[in-house]
Amino acid sequence: MPLFGNIFSPKKTPPRKSASLSNLHTLDRSTREIELGLEYGSPVMNIGGQSLKFEEGHWIAESGGNVSGKEVQRLKKRNLQLEEENNLLRLKIEVLLDMLSESTAETHLIQKELEDVRSNSRRKK
């Protein structure tokens, strides 16, 4: 029997209360904005002097940017070329993988036939 009792056994913790006593989480977004004034607006960021705004799932350059229309057209054309090249390379990879699969299957068949021939020749001896 310990002298001071069992001081190392932890006591039971009391049950936790509800995570939130507020009912604000049950309100829809527009009601919360009206009640609490939570109007954040669209996210905006500046990169290299260019201001970009996120609207309807896309980043849109705001006016006042230093990129000309010609530069945008050139970049769009280059992007299209790179996408086409990427698609061509993916197709080439797919063809090469098919060729590799076919040659691997043929190699396995040849190895199997060779093993069968060897085992048959050993049985005959």
Write the layout of secondary structure elements.
Layout: H1 29-36, E1 44-47, E2 50-55, E3 58-61, H2 69-124
Antiparallel strand pairs: 1-2, 2-3
Keywords: Coiled coil
Coiled coil: 72-99
Pfam family, one: Chibby
The SSE order reads HEEEH
- Helical region count? 2
Main sheet makeup? 3 strands, antiparallel
Strands of the widest sheet, in order across it, are: 1-2-3
Any overview of this molecule?
The protein has 125 residues and is mostly helical. The chain is 51% helix and 11% strand. A 3-stranded antiparallel β-sheet has the order 1-2-3, with no helix packed on it. Strand 1 and strand 2 form a beta hairpin. The longest helix is centred in the last third of the chain and has 56 residues, at 69-124. The protein is flat. This is Chibby homolog 1. Keywords: Coiled coil.
Key traits:
coiled coil; single chain; mainly alpha; Chibby_fam; 125 residues; Chibby homolog 1
Compact summary:
By secondary structure, this protein is mainly alpha-helical. Helices cover 51% and strands 11% of the residues. The protein contains two helices and three strands, in the order H-E-E-E-H.
